[in-house]
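Try this one yourself first.
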């Protein structure tokens, strides 16, 4: 049986200044999946966590997986060892289920992590990096999460990161309909952010590194070429940064110049400005928050306002955790039985094959039996064998521990060999 492992860091153990160092570019990720040193591999990287999951026929060495994550990110493990958590076996299953359902997120029950895990799984599967074990684990986690979203109201009460960002904007400006908002980055995060902003104001500018992406939304905003961002940034009350980048796309010095230019060009813009940085790595130099009249908020800061919906979410959390437990137990039952499943199937096939052989002997002794009756007898033999297999093999597997099933199979195998020996002796005696 392949053992499962995971290692990573999240918002719970590392602040964004640490997490952003473990940004893994897509080309590095795909190269790792194509030439994986493990039997199975999946890489999950979001603004709040970087985690690697592995299924391996060999036992991994201590901290091997954490060191592997560091190698992907180009970092020295010794400098960041304290920020990593590592899990194996059943603990990995529990962790995946909780993460996928959003129960380990900044905003409990948020929807975005499900999409992120779905994409991570599809990418790993596409490159042939996953196998039977990780396929079963992540398919089960995704299915269980969808059940939670269908059967409970948890997701309706959830606060994804863009929602929390919008709450922060509304706290800062109670007259948002009169304010100008500039969104930089129109990927999944930026597009969702745009939906929230649209509900509150029509004065929206947006940029994307590919200008065509911004032009797609020209009916609801004013698209701005990415290279012209500073010309617009200084004239806006709210700046929301959602772009993927290696280095800051908004520096303190250029921001100061932009704000001065904006004040000269547009007297309506107040000195108070809100910059919300949803990037990981961060899109702006955090030092812009030191400027007079500038409020800078990054992903970690948003955690402070999560508590508003916490009481209502807790009511639904019990129901969600019950479903989560069912999904986890279903996977673990499969996982623990994986190495005996083949043996069970072999015995079941043997029972059907033996029934067919015995049926053949009977039919050969009845040469005058009509073909219709011969087919009916053969069907009854096979059906009886399959029923016996279901009643005495698959039920044993479903209702007993792995160790007890192995004992049962050994006894069954010994009994079968004794019967074969007696049959051979009978045949020998007859000669």
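Now uncover the answer:
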């Amino acid at each position: 049986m392949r053992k499962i492992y995971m290692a990573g860091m999240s918002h719970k153990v590392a602040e964004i200044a640490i997490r952003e160092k473990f940004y893994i570019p897509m080309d590095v990720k795909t190269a790792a999946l194509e030439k994986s040193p493990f039997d199975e591999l999946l890489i999950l990287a979001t603004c709040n966590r970087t985690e690697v999951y592995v299924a391996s026929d060999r036992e991994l060495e201590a901290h091997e997986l954490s060191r592997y994550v560091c190698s992907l990110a180009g970092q020295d493990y010794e400098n960041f060892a304290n920020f990593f958590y590592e899990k194996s076996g059943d603990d990995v299953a529990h962790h995946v289920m909780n993460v996928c359902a959003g129960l380990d997120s900044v905003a409990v029950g948020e929807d975005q992590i499900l999409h992120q895990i779905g994409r991570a799984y599809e990418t790993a599967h596409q490159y042939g990096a996953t196998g039977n074990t990780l396929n079963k684990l992540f398919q089960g986690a995704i299915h269980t999460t969808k059940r939670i979203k269908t059967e409970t109201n948890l997701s309706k009460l959830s606060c994804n990161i863009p929602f929390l960002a919008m709450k922060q904007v509304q706290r800062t400006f109670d007259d948002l309909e009169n304010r100008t908002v500039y969104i930089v980055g129109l990927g999944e995060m930026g597009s969702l952010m745009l939906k929230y902003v649209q509900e509150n104001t029509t004065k929206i500018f947006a940029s994307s590194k590919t200008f065509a992406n911004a032009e797609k939304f020209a009916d609801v905003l004013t698209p701005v070429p990415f290279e012209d961002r500073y010309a617009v940034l200084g004239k806006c009350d709210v700046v929301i940064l959602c772009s993927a980048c290696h280095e800051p796309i908004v520096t303190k010095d250029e921001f100061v110049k932009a704000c001065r230019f904006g004040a000269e060009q547009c007297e309506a813009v107040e000195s108070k400005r809100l910059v919300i940085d949803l990037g990981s790595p961060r899109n702006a130099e955090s030092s812009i928050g030191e400027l007079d009249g500038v409020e800078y908020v990054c992903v970690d800061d948003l955690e402070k306002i999560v508590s508003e919906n916490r009481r209502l979410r807790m009511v639904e959390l019990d129901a969600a955790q019950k479903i989560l437990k069912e999904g986890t137990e279903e996977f673990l039952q499969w996982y623990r039985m994986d190495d005996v499943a083949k043996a069970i199937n072999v015995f079941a096939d043997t029972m059907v094959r033996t029934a067919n052989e015995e049926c053949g002997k009977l039919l050969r002794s009845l040469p005058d039996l009509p073909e219709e009756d011969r087919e009916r007898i053969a069907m009854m033999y096979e059906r009886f064998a399959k029923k016996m297999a279901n009643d005495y093999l698959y039920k044993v597997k479903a209702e007993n521990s792995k160790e007890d099933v192995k004992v049962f199979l050994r006894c069954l195998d010994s009994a079968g060999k004794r019967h074969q020996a007696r049959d051979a002796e009978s045949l020998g005696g007859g000669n």
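Discussion: The first helix runs from residue 16 to 19. The mean pLDDT is 86.
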